[in-house]
Amino acid sequence: MLTMYVKTGCPYCALAIGKVDDLGLKVEYKNIADDAVAAELVERGGKRMVPYLVDEERSVEMYESSDIVDYLNKNYSSKDSTDG
Question: pTM of this prediction?
């Protein structure tokens, strides 16, 4: 399962979300506008910085939109798609 911590209006989040959309991935988005979600992010990653990707399947967690885009390209772009 993929989870991404984001904030509304964040241009870096928009880049990462755009890649998710391009690849047709299913991602749970958690918005740090909610104080409980922000606290969860800090506890998990150590910083209140977004975007933050969690890939539970591969035990990978990361900040930085460019790193997230590269990671998704490397690990999910060749995934079989039945979208037609």
Answer: 0.90
